[in-house]
Amino acid sequence: MFSINNILRENIKNLTPYSSARDEYQGEASVFLDANENAYGSPLEQAYNRYPDPLQFEVKKRLTEIKGVPPRNIFLGNGSDEAIDILFRSFCNPGVDNVILVPPTYGMYQVSANINDVAVKNVPLTEEFQLNLDGIAEAIDEHTKLIFICSPNNPTGNSIDRTDVETLLANFSGIVVVDEAYINFSRQKTFIQELTEYANLVVLQTLSKAWGLAGLRVGMAFASEEIIEVMNKVKPPYNVNEASQQLALQALANVDLVNLWIKETLQQRDLLVLGLKDFDFVVDIYPSDANFILVKTTNANGIYDFLVSQGIIVRNRSKVELCEGCLRITVGTPDENNILLQTLQNFK
Ligand SMILES: Cc1ncc(COP(=O)(O)O)c(C=O)c1O
After folding, report:
1. Which atom of ligand 1 is the closest one to the Cα of 105?
2. Which residues contact 115 (CB under 8 A, 6 or more apart)?
3. How many angstroms separate the Cα of 266 from the Cα of each of 291, 315, 330, 331?
4. Which of 83, 124, 194, 310 is an S-S bond match for 221, by CB 3.0 to 4.6 Å?
5. What is the per-residue pLDDT across 46-69, written as a single tens digit (0 to 9) for each?
6. Per residue in 221-279, pLDDT tens?
């Protein structure tokens, strides 16, 4: 059975978190001489001279309206990459613990593991890009703390079978991280609804993809109150800056526009698939639940280099296990997609 105390690092259990100036008073105040800020202002139109809300309450309140998850179950990070790193730092003892990854998948899990000196047990996806549950069960040992599942998966684009993820959640006594960076483009339901069911579930989402805010660096983790408390304790005090909080809040008022873009992206994805199918060098296009497609080709390096020479950048994934010969192509605007297709006509 999952118990947070069984998997929390001892030093984190005993950690006294940094107490910021604004944490230490209660009540109303109008004169703030506590945080060594510049009281005169900032040399910008917007006043950024004050430290931001460390727990980003206004943004969380809005996310609660959109996602139906209370603020106490939401962590905000400097991108979801920060949430990934904080999970390692909270739960994995360097040089002792391990995590399970299911490649091909998002590269930052491995990098974060390496940075934190945490061993990785790789259990590759099946040929159908689904979980190898037997392999995962065999790989789990007493030091396995986290299993990362990316769904829809980057770079393959498919969603992972829901029942398989639930099997892991029900049987693994560590944390299952379901990274839903691309969930807005998916036909599948989010795992957020399962938070009340599974105490060992962490769902990651981001404002970097469908929300069009990659430059702001705002990522979300949804989890039990006790996991969120740990993550808040470990994070740097002001990890989401004031500009990002304000702009995220403004953007989150624009759900309709984002939904429109999602619809258009999905239409464009279908058109891109149709257009690419015609080329002799395209061997396969994998079904996608995301805003990108994985395309198997006869000559990934050649096509990649040719596109670069024409000023078009796609992602060459041909060296990745199970993705031999593959390029990952993000769905662009209609113009961008047409330029790509027209340019490819000239590839010999
Ligand atoms: C699966 C997945 N998770 C997380 C991220 C990072 O998101 P963020 O911009 O919120 O750090 C990416 C970015 O490509 C991604 O593909």
Report:
1. 1
2. 85, 88
3. 7, 19, 11, 8
4. 83
5. 999 999 999 999 999 999 999 999
6. 999 999 999 999 999 999 999 999 999 999 999 999 999 999 999 999 999 999 999 99
pLDDT tens digits, 170-208: 999 999 999 999 999 999 999 999 999 999 999 999 999
**Index of the ligand 1 atom closest to the CA of residue 150:** 1
CA–centroid distance, residue 81 to ligand 1 (Å): 6
Single pTM value for the model = 0.97
Q: Which atom of ligand 1 is nearest to the CA of 84?
A: 4
Mutate which of 108, 203, 217 for ligand 1? The one with the most ligand atoms within 8 Å of its CB, which is 108
Please give the residue that has the higher pLDDT: either 29 or 8. Answer: 8
Q: Which two tokens stand for residue 122?
A: 């790789």
Residue burial 237-261, b: 16+ Cβ < 10 Å; e: rest: bbbbbbebbbbbeebbeeeeebeeb
Q: Cα–Cα distance between 89 and 235 in angstroms, integer? A: 9
Cα 297 to ligand 1 centre (Å): 25
Residue labelled with tokens 């460390």: 54
Give the binding-site residues of ligand 1, using a 6 Å CB cut-off. 79-81, 106, 150, 154, 179, 181, 206, 208, 214, 219
Give me ligand 1 centre to Cα 206, in Å.
7
Q: What whole-number distance in Å separates Cα of residue 211 and Cα of residue 181?
A: 10
Q: How far is the CA of 182 from the centre of ligand 1 (A)?
A: 9
Q: What is the mean pLDDT of residues 88-106?
A: 98
Q: Quick one: tokens of 66?
A: 């959109």
Question: Per the structure block, which two tokens stand in for 55?
Answer: 């727990």
Q: How far is the CA of 108 from the centre of ligand 1 (A)?
A: 8
Question: Phi and psi dihedrals of 297, rounded to 5?
Answer: -125, 170
Q: Which atom of ligand 1 is nearest to the CA of 214?
A: 9
pLDDT of residue 219: 98
The span from the CA of 156 to the CA of 154, in Å, is: 5
